Amino acid sequence: MRWKTGARVLGQWLALGALVGVVCGVASAAFLWLLEEATRLREANGGLVYALPLAGWVLGAVYARWGGPVRGGNNLVLETVHTGDAQVPLRMAPMVLVGTVLTHLFGGSAGREGTAVQMGGSLADWVAHRFRAGADLRRELLAAGIAGGFGSVFGTPVAGAVFGLEVVVVGRLGYEALLPALVASVVGDVVTRGLGIQHTVYPVPGALPLSVTVIGKWLVFAVGVAAVAVVFVEGLHRMKAVMERRVPWLPLRMAMGGTAVVMLWLWVGTDAYLGLGVPGIVRAFEDPGLPVSAFAWKLAFTVVTLGTGFLGGEVTPLFFIGASLGNVLARMLGLPVDLGAAVGMAALFAAAANTPLALSIMAVELVGAGVLPHVMIVSTVAYVLTGHRGIYPAQRIGRRKDGGSGFGRWVPLREMESTVPGPVTERPGDGGPGGQGSG
């Protein structure tokens, strides 16, 4: 009977989603605790930053010797969702955890979402193989792993679930994985909090009613966000490509990147752009005198750190860049500074990762429902203006963002050349899953 089949499927997803959520929650709790300890140790011993080049050399040697496919990072997880290739290595979880913690210990400018997603993906794929899941079930468990890692590491379970669906294919939500993703994200968040992890509390902006004038200001704001998102994405990809071509040996490449970060640190004369930079994000909500150049400095530190091979994610640095940019744009446009910081924080990552819905929900979970109409407007407009590019080249796209014709297949972003406005062309290459994506 159909109801029995439905009950069996529901039970399966509740059990497997919860299992993925538990392992993601435990991993995120351990990671966040270690990250906090590493940050505290670096702040108490500023001289550790001088050792970043040596740390890069050692990490590069380890990854060159044992990293293998693990070095694909988030893109490896996304590729596996699409192609169903070999298992995401279980060793990815401990390797990215240790590598990211060491990056932060010595002052590299990186985030935590990449590590959480990679840990969640590798652990979820381990669960899938333990239960001998078929191809479809495995893909859905991988989406749950992405959701569980993201939701638990930021304390945003609903956004985590939506992110796990939205990040896979640009402009398409895979609702077939909604239940396991939601279960994994909620359970992961509960487990992480239950293990004593405290997430950052951001200031709640005051209410601002929408009006024609306010909407016009947000449209200008969105143009600024999109421009910075393009600079970040293109800068990061080009830094990686140039460094990999000119310095193919990973240990030397990472040592050079560490040296460049140290030089930037000495040049700017402040620790504000090292590590996660959470105090800088909170400051952007409160300080109308925030330096106009703050977002640009954090962008430079992050592009150099991640572009030369150090481990970590892009989310928290993009939060810093977006909040600082939002602070500046709000002052220029006559918008409340706290609201500008909140909107910029979420919208910049939404544009860079092609996830406007997830990040709009995330903004609500972090700073309250009053931000929703504003962040949704800016995130959506910036998402369109950013074009067919993103920080995850393994994302697929099946239809133009501007509503034009589809491509007949899901095309990896890495194969796209984008100009907005203008034609979108494809580079020759593998289309991924072979499905006909309509976006």
The low-pLDDT segments are: 418-439
Query: Rough shape?
Result: globular
Tell me the quaternary state: single chain
Strand content: under 5%
Quote the average pLDDT: 86
State the end-to-end CA separation: 34 Å
Helix content: 55-70%
Strand order of the largest sheet: 1-2-3
Structural class: mainly alpha
- Computed Rg: 21 Å
**SSE run:** HHHHHHHEHHHHHHHHHEEEE
Features:
439 residues, mainly alpha, two-stranded antiparallel sheet, 4% strand, disordered C terminus
Describe this structure in words.
By secondary structure, the chain is mainly alpha-helical. It has 16 helices and 5 strands. It has a 3-stranded mixed sheet with strand order 1-2-3, with no helix packed on it. Helix 13 packs across helix 14 (337-353). The chain is globular. The two termini are 34 Å apart.
Short description:
With 439 residues, the protein is mostly helical. It has helices spanning 2-44, 52-67, 73-83, 92-105, 113-130, 135-154, 157-166, 178-194, 212-246, 250-268, 278-286, 294-307, 315-333, 337-353, 356-367, 372-385; strands at residues 169-170, 396-399, 406-412, 416-417, 425-426. The chain is globular, with a radius of gyration of 21 Å.
